[in-house]
Amino acid sequence: MYYHGRSHFEHGESTATGILITNLGTPDAPTKQALKPYLKEFLEDPRVVEPPPARWLWKLILNGIILNTRPAKSAEAYETVWNSEGEGAPLLRITERQLAAIEERVRPHFSGRVEFALGMRYGNPSIASALRELHEKGCQRILVLPLYPQYAGATTASTLDAVSAELQTWRWVPELRFVRNYHRHPGYIKALANSIREYQAEHGKPELLVMSYHGVPQRYLDNGDPYHCECHITSRLVADELGLNKDEYRVTFQSLFGKEEWIKPYTDATMKALPTEEGIKNVQVICPGFSADCLETIEEIGEENREYFEEHGGESFGYIKCLNDRADHADALADLILQHTQGWYEREGFDAQADEVERATVKANAKALGCPY
User: Which residues partner with 211 through β-bridges?
Assistant: First the structure.
């Protein structure tokens, strides 16, 4: 097996800290041709679709049926949102802006070098390419921050799988830290509450605030995944911050896939039932589990579920955007990074001159031993 090494290295060079921001990913284009490899990579991940004991059966279904029918339908949906945040996929464009905002806030805290990179779990830029970018820049310490506030095996753990798979091919493995979740981080909770207050200051308060999260199969919860619990914790903390009573907000789950039971209540079923069964005609929906607007929020919530609600008698439907690159969101993520890099960024007492002398000594000693670099 070949182990990947840096293309260049010098003894005595300053080491760097790497900050890797990750998210789910997006196809390269809103076309059937681009969707097929993207969906294949996504749906072949055993963390996303935990296959039956006969894994060959899932591969047969995936390659024989799903990948021959779903790409065209998904491409149509992506086409509707593709340039909603500038040229290209909204998730990628927003995450790039988030990274720039985070870098602006974090960099001043480091006396030594700190480098930033963006990697997507599926599609491009990949997690592997982002890690190699940091590796080439001499990052011997890397913090990985998946932009999933609530932990789930299908998202957070899958990200760690991808990081681990790449690092297993490296000759010189860095010190690694990994942010598992931030579902109750005070800055994140306040940013969500602020976004709701700002929206309601312009559009008024609804009869019901719906907090919609991406769903997972019920068996994942039954087998010990904490995602469902963490979604409810976030929602309760946001409601507390807003001073809401239990009957003023509701937690639901969206984006179902396949025929098995998923965690409930379902967002689409809720939107259909609120006007007809509960007489609620004015709702606002926010998606706290999505750090950036994407197909599942812009199209699925802002359009599809709006239609469900209105077709069943709803009168006022408001979609509250994801936190995206809001300043308070960037502040929270930067604070999270600084919490997890304690001891890596230099504080009072760091002697830059002494550090430079030490590195020069290391380089001189290496040359004395005959090392060309």
Answer: 251, 286
